[in-house]
Design brief:
By secondary structure, this protein is α/β, with parallel strands linked by helices. It has a domain at about 115-305: Rossmann fold. The chain has 14 helices and twelve strands. The strands form two sheets. The chain has a nine-stranded mixed beta sheet with strand order 1-2-6-5-4-3-7-8-9, with helices on both faces. The protein has a three-stranded antiparallel beta sheet with strand order 10-12-11. Strand 7 (about 240), helix 9 and strand 8 (about 265) form a beta-alpha-beta unit. Helix 1 (about 20-30) packs parallel to helix 3 (about 50-65), helix 1 packs across helix 4 and helix 12 (about 330-335) crosses helix 13 (about 345-350).
Amino acid sequence: MYRSVRDGAAIPADLIHVKLTPAQRLDWLRLIRSENVGPRTFRALVNHCGSAGAALEALPDLARRGGAGRAVRVCPREEAERELAAAVRMGVAFLALGEDEYPPQLATIDDAPPLLALRGQVRVLKEPMIAMVGSRNASAAGIKFTEQLARDLGAAGFVVVSGLARGIDAAAHRASIATGTVAVLAGGHDSIYPPDHAPLVEALIENGAAVSEMPLDYGPRGRDFPRRNRLISGLALGVVVVEAAQKSGSLITGRMALEQNREVFAVPGSPLDPRAAGTNALLKQGAVMVTEAEDVLTALRPILGRRIAPPRAEPCKEEGAPPPEPPEGARARIVALLGPTPVSADDLIRLSGASTTVVHATLLELELAGRLKRQSGGRVALV
């Protein structure tokens, strides 16, 4: 069943704001651009090592301990400096997790990007957002409804978030340009996809924004779109699915919204239209039915005034020795408990008899060696 965002888990109260120095921002960019380092690994590394700078120094040794067959690639300083310089030329700003400008709703998800590259108006990231997604091969009726709903929600004070795809996404962006819309890119700012939507990006950044976690010149691949979808739902208070087939990226966005404790909305459609099969299935599972903007507003009004806590700051430590190596026997017990089926770190701590520090250090080493994958809910599995 789809659970309302009103039933959400509490946000930790000890989260604080930060402001990175230029040197720290460069270290953060180098770390997130290094091999086998994703958002969750970034956080684990900074917590484990004390800072991004210390993590960069420790990366090769940590990967070796995890069984890497070759040296892990650490992003060179010169490469990160070039990306930062190119971003300045394009008018792209890197917002760091924990800084005041970072979108507060996105900061609450467990795999929030450490750095979010933004082009456009940073102020829109502080406004309440609603995501709208749907079929690329949209029907005329679906596009018409999307346009009306986006205009009405924009007039009600919401910024509309979508993924810049053809069909429903593009209709949502175009209809909300005047009130503010955010395009979440699957690739980098210098590699807009689809390419024919580059003029749409130029139009929407005048009163809205385009955001990405990828390198500026990165061309998106198929696997990058689900990764983008978590940001679409993560930015928003809820996700409206307008049209979606049974197996579609829009349903992935709906599932991610549920995992992130966002509200899930669905627009009903004809049972004879395969583009409505996914949305009708969402309604059967408990998604909120939407036939007009008031359906969305009624569900979201109770949570609009809720305070969103800022994310945890990077620890201040900038120097220090590499973290101690876990005992070999403890590492072997932990690795033996792992397999392709995801398990929680708490289970590994309980079953291995190792300390929390040793378990998390071992998992971090395995991940940097390319042998482990982190999944939602804090679960891990061997690759």
